[in-house]
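Exam revision sheet. Question 4 asks you to relate a sequence to its structure. Input first:
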Amino acid sequence: MQLTQLYNLLYDTYGDQGWWPGRSDWEILFGSVLIQNTNWRNVDQAIAALTQATDMIPHQMRTLSTDQLQDLIRPAGFFTRKAQTIQNLLTWLAAANDDLARLRRTPPQQLRTSLVALSGIGDETADDILLYVLSVPTVIIDKYTRRFFNRFEITLPASYLAAQKAVADQLPNFTLRGLQNFHALIVAVEKEKYTKSQWQDLPMSQYRLEWNQS
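Answer key, C-alpha cells:
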C-alpha cells in the first residue's frame, strides 16, 4: 500500500478531523507555542486566560508586561520561556503589521527561515504555523509522526529536515488540505495509544507500506 492509499484508509476510518482546533488564526498561532512539552488540557487553560485578557489579538497582547503574560500562560508550563517566544512572535508579526494575508504572500522558504530564526521556534513549531495558519503546504514531523511510521517498520531519519523530505517525497501531489488532514489523522491514531495487539486488529495493520527511496 502506498502512503496516499493509507491516507484514504485513515480518512475512511477516522473521518475529517477539523484540525488544528482553534477559534481564530491567532489562537492556533500562539497555541503552537503553548502546546510545546505539555497537553491540550493545560493549553486550553492558558488560551482561556489569554482570550479573556486580550481576545488573543496581537496588538492587545503587546500591552501585557512580561510578568502579566507569564502569569496568564502559567498553566501551560515553561511559562518563562514560552512568554519570551510569544513576545518574539509578536515582534515578528509587528514587522508585517499583523497582516496574515501579507505573510501568506511571502515566499514559503523565506517565511520558514524567518520563523526558525526566532528564539523558541524550532522546525516543528514553524511548520505548525506554516501549515495551519499561513497556508503553506508542508509536512510536520513530530513524535506522533515518528511513532506512526514505526508501526509500519519505517524508521524516519533522525534529522528533522531529512525526515520531512522522506515523507513529503511519498506525497508529491498532496494539497494543503490533504497535508493538514493527514497530520491530524496521524495524531488521532497515536492519541489512541494502541497497544501492539490492538494495532493488529486495525485494518491498516494488515498492509505493508511501500516506501520509495529518493
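Marking note for examiners. The two ends are 18 Å apart (CA to CA).
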